[in-house]
Amino acid sequence: METFFNNLTRFKALSERGQAMLLPLFTRLEYKKGETLIRCGKPCQSLYLIEQGYCRAFNIQDGLEVNINFYFEYETMTHKNSYVFNTPADFAVVACEPMIVHRVDKPELLEATRLCPELEEAGKKNLELIAAKQERQMQLFRILTAKGRYEFLEQHDPELLQRVSISQLASYLGVKRETLSRIRNKRMRSATL
Predict the structure, then answer these.
(1) CA 129, 169, 149 angle in degrees (round to 5)?
(2) Pair 134, 69: CB distance under 8 Å
(3) Are 108 and 158 contained in the same domain?
(4) Same domain assignment for residues 60 and 136
(5) How far apart are CA 187 and CA 75, in angstroms?
(6) Is the entire prediction scored with pTM above 0.85?
(7) Disulfide-capable partner of 68 in 57, 80, 88, 168 (CB 3.0 to 4.6 Å)?
(8) What range does the domain containing 187 cover?
(9) Is the domain of 129 the same as that of 189?
(10) DSSP characters for 30-76?
């Protein structure tokens, strides 16, 4: 856990006391592909730091799964609104491959931040990163065409294009699978010219 923790840059600046208070709060969990981390309709009062594997956030719209986001190694995953406001989650999160995560629950984390104020700053930075990722994804859909969204992911999230299935990626980009296949084929052809 300590090696994993040291790879999370937002926690590197913590003092030894801060690290000593924070590390014991985490519970190491393993999930199999398809297992649920966050259930839609239930409050999410935990943060999940991903050590290995990735997961997807999705909800159901008109009977179809719509992928909202993907979370990979060294990212923190939660349902931000549910976590902050203690409301039911409006999406689910499931493992897309075997995962190892480290979960910390909000009550214990709040008590630790009360006793060690530097933890509050690290927590704020962590929530800011989550919010920034969500904001970037919203901008992606407000501004860019489907082709532009794909090109953006090629430049900024190539891992997502390599690891996520074409069906899930199409859902995430808001296009049909056939449309995404055409975009990918055109991009590959233009890259070889």
Answers:
(1) 65
(2) yes
(3) no
(4) yes
(5) 29
(6) yes
(7) 57
(8) 144-193
(9) no
(10) EE-TT-EEE-TTSB--EEEEEEES-EEEEEEETTEEEEEEEE-TT-E
